[in-house]
Amino acid sequence: MKPTLARSILTASLVLGFAAFAASPALAQSGTTTRAQVKMDRDTFLSMARWDEATGNWVLRSDMPMPEGVPTREEIKAMRDQFLSMNRWNDSTSQWVPVTGAPRDMSKLSREQVKAETVQFLKTHRFDEMTRNWVKK
């Protein structure tokens, strides 16, 4: 009986499939955490966090205190607002330019202007949790 191309391909795919199947249990058991440790980690996480449907993300439960040293949302927004009051977006150069003189009073700007500059700031900066500061992207 002559080996045909279809039979050769079938044989090769079966050999590769069995090799992958035989290697998968070894890969799955390579971790050192036990089932009990995983369950304990899961229970600890679920006691501290809840799923927020509105954002589609896990958030800290409202009865849980924030970890020490983590800035609050208000502090992060205040840092952003301070940057916006000290700088303005220049469309012609596509850069932030320091404000000359005293910082801008953001309440005197139109809502559209504040929103546009905030959007531009969020496009050009991100909050680095390690340094607890806004950094350029």
What does this molecule look like?
- The mean pLDDT is 82.
- The chain has helices at residues 5-28, 35-48, 73-86, 111-124; strands at 49-52, 57-60, 87-90, 95-98, 125-128, 133-136.
- The protein is an alpha+beta fold and 137 residues long.
- The protein has a two-stranded antiparallel sheet.
- Strand 3 and strand 4 form a beta hairpin.
User: How many beta strands in the DSSP annotation?
Assistant: 6
Principal-axis shape:
elongated
What order do the strands of the largest sheet run in, or round the barrel if closed? 1-2
Q: Helical content, roughly?
A: 40-55%
| Proportion of strand residues | 15-25%
Question: Can you count the helices?
Answer: 4
Helix vs. strand class: alpha+beta
| Rounded radius of gyration (Å) | 28 Å
Distance between the termini: 65 Å
The helix/strand order is HHEEHEEHEE
Largest sheet: 2 strands, antiparallel
The stretches of 5 or more residues where confidence is low (pLDDT under 50) are: none
Task: Describe the structure concisely for a colleague.
The chain is of the alpha+beta class. The protein contains 4 helices and 6 strands; from the N terminus they run H-H-E-E-H-E-E-H-E-E. Strands 1-2 form a two-stranded antiparallel sheet.
